[in-house]
Structure formats: structure tokens, C-alpha cells
Input
Amino acid sequence: MKIAFVTEYFPKSKDRDIKGGAEVAAFNEAYYLSKNNEITVLTSFEEGMERETNIGNIKVIACGKKRSYTQKGSFKNRLTFMKAAYDIGKKMDFDIVVGYNFITYISAWKIAKKLNIPCVARYHDVWINNWIKNIGIFGIFGEIMERYILSRDLSLIIAVSNFTAENLEKFVPKEKIAVVHNIVEFDKVESPKYHDTTISCVSRLVEYKRIEDLILAMNILVRDFPDLKCKIVGTGQMKEKLIAIIEENHLNDNITLCGFVEKHEDVLKVINSSHIFVLPSEVEGFGIVVVEALGCEVPFVASNIPPIMEASGKKGGLFFNVRDFKDLASKIKYLLENKELYNKLKNEGKEQYDKYQGEYISKKLENLYSSAIEKYN
Output
């Protein structure tokens, strides 16, 4: 099959300089599907990219004006990218086109209409009625775009979790929805444990990720564990506010905001070197990074939202009541003090991680794409 992926961002090389969950999914799926299919990726033109390049068997085309990575806003640049991706894609030869996030669904759908081929949306989360709550007043544009794309005649929507699929059923006929979990797979990283007991967190620094709850939990924990450290990997518009909370609670010696870490391997080293991984988010489509923690055999403490519980299989970690930083602190303390439970979670986590291997999941995707093409024709 000749498959087009439209994704706002994509790695510049096989080193996987990846910034978010949608890009992780796009890269892993492109990598495995490219073994038996022709994969072309239409993505943004970032600094350090060539207009056209190949990553293994994946052909990558950078579209539009050169732009920097952004997590929200930047409407003009995003619209420019959407149009550029369409202008390039409509002139190419594909059997099917797949969009990977809200910014790319419309471009993918329009390319498919122009080429008279099926369009698939790889769907991470449903935000209808929650856009403004999650990102503020500018979320109104996301609300409009999501409602628009779900009203189009998409051939198939492939949700990353049963939770997302159930939410999609409120807006899309059930027969147009399938569920295929994300591929979560990486080479084993070698990195020694940090000298001090360390908590790690990998997350965008945005409001709905609730990083402030981790900071406030740390403020409680250091009373019993004064040498406890916390390393937070990620960037976002909440950075200055989080710095203020850290300083206000005199936690500068305990908490490090690591910023954006370019290489995925280096992100994994932070997780692998830590003793506990924490994800306090109240909004997730799947929770890839929790599965990565399972693969590193690092027990986690995460919010008790359905996508994370589904992704982890409720194994390998403990769950706290979302937005309750006192409960988060309590769960972390319990795990730090209970060595038998810690080792149990460490062992069962690795077993759960093994369920997300690329060969198995890419085959499911390949069958769905092939079926969508057959039905369309």
C-alpha cells in the first residue's frame, strides 16, 4: 500500500527527537508499516530539516514555511502548514491517507477527497465540550475544528484506547470506529540509578497535565524524605508559574525542571535512572509515557483517569485521585516505604509493556488500512 501520514511534527532522524504522544505514535507506526508498504510523511518544516529526506524506508516531506515547535496558538503558522500539506499531498499518488492530530485531520481529509481515496483519523482523545476548560479561551477554535472533522465522511477512525472509542461513539457511528493501542517499544537503555531517591515526570507543562500537583506533593514528601529529588522533563507555557510555585515552597534543591530533552533515548534515561515515575495529568488519550516507565521497570504513581488505567492494565503502579496532591503524596510515600510492593510492581510492569510491541500492533493497523481501501473501492 502507498500510505500517507499527515502529522504536524515528525522526528528529523532515527534518533527520535520527539516532543509529544502524537509524534511518537506517528513515528513508530510509520517505522513498522514501512517494512511492507510505501510510507510518505507530510509534516512541518522545522529548523535542521531538509525539504525531502528519508528515515530508513520512510519518505519525509517538510511542508510550508519554516516554523518552530508549538503546543498551542500560532494559528497563522498552523493554517499555513495545513494548506501546504494539502497542496503537496493532492498532487501525489496514495492509496490511503492518515491524519494524526486535530491540526492534520482536515488536511488529510481534503487530500483524500481530492485523490478519491479513503481517509483515516488516528485518534488520541476527544475534547469536544472540554477545549476551553483544557487550554483556555483559544480552545474555541479547537472545539470548532473537532466538531467539523467528526462531521466529515471519514472512512475510519482508529482510537488509541477503548476510553477514546467510547467518547467517539457520541459523535460518530460505532461501525466507523476501531481500537488499536499505540506501539510503545524502545531499545533497553543503560543508565545507573540516581544517587538520591528520585521521582521522574515527563510531560508538557500545560494546565491539564497538573504538574503543580506533583510540586505540591513534593512539598509534603520532603518533610519525611528531605533528600528526595524530582526531575521534570518537558516544556510549555506553564513553566514560569511552576517555577514560582517551586520557589514559593523552597523546593529548588529538590525539584529540577529539565526543559525539553531532544533525544528520546535521553528522556528514557531520566525515567530509567529514577526510582518512581509520576504522571499527574487529568487529560490523556492513552498515556504512552506510563507504558515507557513500565518498560524501564520503574513503578509509577499516576492519576486514576481511565486512559492511563487502561494503558497500564492497572499493573506496575499505584493510582491517586486526580487533582488531589495529598493523595498523590500519600501513594508515593507508601511506595517508597514498601519494598515488597515496589518489587512486585516492577516485575509485573515489564509483562504489561511487552503487550505493546510494534510487529503485533502494526499488523492490526495494516489489516484495517487494507480493509478500508477495499471497502472504498
Q: What stands out?
A: The chain is about 40% helix and 20% strand.
